[in-house]
Amino acid sequence: MEFVLYEQKGAVGIITINRPQALNALNSQVLDELNEAFDSVNLDEVRALILTGAGEKSFVAGADIGEMSTLTKAEGEAFGKKGNDVFRKIETFPIPVIAAVNGFALGGGCEISMSCDIRICSDNAVFGQPEVGLGITPGFGGTQRLARLVGAGMAKQMIYTARNIKAPEAYRIGLVNEVISATVDEAGNVTATAQQNLLAAAEKMAAGIAKNAPIAVRNCKKAINEGLDVDMDKAIVIEEKLFGDCFETEDQKYGMAFFLDKNKEKVKEPFKNC
Ligand code: CO8
């Protein structure tokens, strides 16, 4: 793949959008390659994913404006569907996906981060939906996911005004869970950049997820996602079924037996995914 990199570190997979010369903007090829990257994740081994962008400046600066500039109405709709299909794949991917937002997350960049389960960002990150300034609506789920994440009032303000927000404001409104800074020693030297610390934090979080019972984690993702789409009466039935589904698995039997075993010397073994 030309624009997407994939690396597996134990039970954690890292997908990097690698088109830094265009600030990782999403053209059709990037979307196709992202689709392929997610399809190729080995779900028998990988239990959590990280999605990030190459370089220190930009996560994803949006959909490719050059490619979009000459689209017809039908082509525009088809391009929207192409992005939506990939983003929905990320959102419903069986294992959690953490967006490590290293800089600009504008338009399609903000949108792809919102299709991930969790967002953390470097302190130079900038979020926004600049589409109305370009004569279009947010087209990769921005009108839908932003309102669900930060509330309709704040989403409408961001989308109608097309005003970008910086990391602290994104944190304040709940768009990101954590803002990561560089490490500076007493002499004022940077010993680790915000980007390095961001990736380390994302990997630590992903490893923390990966050590928990995989069927239970997957079922939690499904329960939260599917439950949010229906009323509470239906949502708790979804939860009941996914809760019940965990029983009789090796991991449930082992996890509970480990707790009940009073032997203080015991060492917890990794969950097996069965
Ligand atoms: N598309 C294509 N190329 C881009 C994009 C983009 N979104 N963003 C940056 N680039 C390119 C620039 O053209 C430039 O290329 P070159 O060096 O060949 O001139 C290179 O990246 C570097 O960019 P800048 O020189 O502009 O870098 P600056 O540091 O000066 O500025 C900014 C950085 C502020 C991020 C600026 O590049 C910018 O404003 N980019 C566009 C941001 C934007 O408007 N994004 C939203 C796009 S619309 C969208 O995402 C819609 C999603 C839904 C689509 C639905 C389809 C139907």
Structure description:
By secondary structure, the chain is α/β, with parallel strands linked by helices. It has two domains: 4-210, 2-enoyl-CoA Hydratase, Chain A, domain 1 (Alpha-Beta Complex); 214-260, Lyase 2-enoyl-coa Hydratase, Chain  A, domain 2, CATH 1.10.12. It is built from eleven helices and twelve strands. The chain has helices at 28-39, 65-68, 73-91, 108-114, 142-150, 152-161, 167-172, 194-210, 214-228, 232-246, 250-260, and strands at 4-9, 12-17, 48-53, 58-60, 97-101, 104-106, 118-122, 126-128, 165-166, 178-180, 183-184, 190-192. A six-stranded mixed sheet has the order 1-2-3-5-7-10, sandwiched between helices. Strands 4-6-8-9 form a four-stranded mixed sheet. The protein is globular. The model has no long low-confidence stretch (mean pLDDT 97). Octanoyl-coenzyme A binds at residues 22-23, 25, 61-66, 68, 76, 79-80, 83, 104, 106-108, 130-131, 134, 138-140.
